[in-house]
Structures are given as structure tokens and as C-alpha cells.
Amino acid sequence: MLADAHPAHTFVPFENTAIDQSLSARFEQQAACYPDRPAVVSAELQFTYAELNQVANCIARAVLARLGEGEEPVAFLFEEGAFIIAAILGILKAGKIYVPLDPAFPHARMAYMLENSQARLLLTNRKHLSQAHRVAVGGQEILNCDDIDVNIATGNLNRPISAEAGALILYTSGSTGPPKGVLHSHRNLLVETKNYTNDVRICPEDRLSQCHSCSFVNSVRTSMALY
After folding, report:
1. Beta-carbon neighbour count of residue 80 at 10 Å?
2. For residue range 28-47, what is the model confidence (pLDDT) as tens digits?
3. Torsion of CA 154, 84, 217, 1, to 10 degrees
4. What is the value of pTM for the model shown?
5. Residue 162 gets which letter from DSSP?
6. Which of 17, 57, 91, 162 has CB 3.0 to 4.6 Å from 98, enough for a Cys bridge?
7. Alpha-carbon span 66 to 173, nearest angstrom
8. From CA 96, how far away is CA 169, in angstroms rounded?
9. Pairwise CA distance, residues 116 & 139, whole Å
10. pLDDT at position 211, please?
């Protein structure tokens, strides 16, 4: 049924060769192909592919200015919305591993995730700034992304990032003990995206709804589908 719903010429398969790269490189390719198309839309904010890429580049530079180069976890604490995608891309473009925190989580769980992941930096905004200070009990630096000037230094960073590099740490529910962090590489997430894209024949004209928190594994396929 899904295959018949789209004219054949509108579907562009996600090729196996496209997984041998980083998520950020794959996204930059899509941004170059569709700069003026809407990439992500929420109630308060929306970005075209070009705008999303530019904001992510600014976030990446802000992250690198605080941590320097090297692969390490960076956590974020935002409400669900368009900006959370820019934060994910910014962390990935900086060559870091993102650790999503859900504002609805108990503070003790978020503090545990920060300590266990060994994240030294926590990205947030004014809305969640006080909450971020309460959970950063391990002395993590807090970056208020509302203070970043997203109109300067918007070009791609062009950092070489391996497909095998870490991209995401997701935590289990903790129902059978302390939550456990699971590391996913760029290749892992691109394979998941490729399978989802090709199985349901996602086309440029399609729109996907993100109904899951970015802290849960089910969110990965829809939040990555724009890659």
C-alpha cells in the first residue's frame, strides 16, 4: 500500500554507500540539495534545511569553543521542538556524542545520566536553565543556547568524522536496575535511517511527525529521517 501511494519517480532510495560517513555529512548533503525546503517545524519555530544547517554550525562552534576537539558526550535539556534537532546536529558536527535529557524525567535520573555518561557540557535554553543547574550536580558546564548568536560563523565546519565514531548514548528505562547507557555509532543510526526510508519509501514530499521524546529509541528513525 505504501509503495503504491507514491509515484515511482519521487522515491529516491537510500543507498548502502551512503552509510559510510557521518550523520552530519549526510545531513549537509541533503541541505545542499534542498536548501529552501522546510526541514523541521514545531509550534513556535521552523527551519528550512539551509537555516537548520546554519544554526547547527553555530552550535557546533560554541561546543568546540568550550570543549575543544575530541570525541566525548555532550548532554542537552530542551522541550520537544524544532530547536532540539538543531542541537543534535550541532553536537554531531562538533564530533561529539549527544545525550538527550527529557525535562519530564525526575531530577535524580537526569543527574545520574549526566554523571554516568561523563558529559562535561549541558546544552539548554532559558526555559530550562534553572532545571539544568539543579541536575548538573557533577559540576558540568551549562551552555544557554539562547545566548548563541546564530547569525555569525554559519559555514560548515568540515570536520572529518568516521562512520564508526560514537553519535548517541540512549539510556534504558531503569525498570530492572540503574539505567544503562547504550552507545550508537553514526553508522548504526544511518543504517536505521536507511532501512526506515527504504521500507516505507519516504519521498521528499512526505512529512513525518515526531511523537516520541528524543530520549527514547523509537524517536531515532523519525528524527533522523531528514538525513
Report:
1. 19
2. 999 999 999 999 998 889 99
3. -80
4. 0.88
5. -
6. 91
7. 31
8. 11
9. 13
10. 55
